[in-house]
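User: Predict the structure for this protein chain, please.
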Amino acid sequence: QVQLVESGGGLVQAGGSLRLSCLASGRTFSSSPMGWFRQAPGKEREFVAAISWSGGRTYYADSVKGRFTISRDNSKNTVYLQMNSLKPDDTAIFYCNDVQIRGATISPIGSWGQGTQVTVSS
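Assistant: Here is the predicted structure, written as structure tokens:
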């Protein structure tokens, strides 16, 4: 069974940085595009960033372009999200998942993990 374990969240001041990690186990990690999503209090879960299986292509929500960078290390079964210039609006629980990429549509297709909490203070 596939397991995704997110880590790296925490409390940071506005303008600060965090690096999230997502460790996958239970299947061939390198064959699947992966993505990060987030859910803020009282809001629906939303797409943040995605990366192709090779790492050669990346995709970002407009709200994080230029501030967040997604990457992956297939030898470690891990996908990362480097978050810089954090804003209070970035406060959310962040999740990773396998994704399906069809044109401009990126959809989560796996089971959700526990997520990792990111809190940005003003």
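The mean pLDDT is 94.
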